[in-house]
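F.,

This is the one I mentioned.
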């Protein structure tokens, strides 16, 4: 069984993330969405809320593709999380050159720690390349419409966090 790990904070899960998840299902038999516990980033949504949003958003995709998709919180090193879930592949989404520079460094460090785990980069579809969770939160906080960037359920969740 080929297991992939797609890590991130997913605060919140965007259509760009869903694009990468959908395309990653073509590469693996099981996809673990590693939900990072990163206290330094000060997430808007709790870990439990982020996990629940991911599980709800990927349920239909999992049934449709036949790929098991699970959300897995983690707070340790990414490479250790990959080992913990039995992943042979780490999947990373890229939007721009600046993403690549950071990811390039991470791949080198991860390979030095465990050369048996490969990293695969998937470019976000052009229509999703500008979407960043940080920008989605900013738009929502300022009362803007985020429906082009996140699902209706997440639009609603953002509205609850930033009532008008």
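My design for it:
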């Amino acid at each position: 069984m080929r297991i992939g790990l797609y890590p991130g904070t997913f605060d919140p899960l965007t259509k760009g993330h869903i694009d990468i998840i959908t395309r990653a299902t073509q590469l693996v038999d099981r996809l673990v969405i590693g939900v990072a516990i990163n206290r330094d980033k000060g997430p808007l949504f709790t870990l439990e809320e982020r996990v629940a949003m991911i599980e709800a958003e990927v349920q239909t995709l999992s049934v449709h593709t036949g790929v098991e998709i699970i959300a897995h919180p983690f707070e340790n090193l990414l490479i250790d999380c990959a080992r913990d879930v039995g992943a042979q592949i780490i999947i990373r989404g890229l939007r721009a050159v600046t993403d690549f520079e950071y990811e390039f460094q991470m791949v080198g460090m991860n390979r030095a720690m465990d050369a048996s785990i490969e990293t695969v980069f998937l470019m976000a579809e052009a229509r999703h390349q500008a979407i960043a969770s940080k920008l989605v939160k900013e738009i929502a906080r300022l009362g803007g419409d985020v429906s082009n960037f996140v699902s209706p359920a997440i639009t609603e969740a953002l509205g609850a966090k930033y009532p008008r």
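The longest strand covers residues 30-36.

Talk soon.
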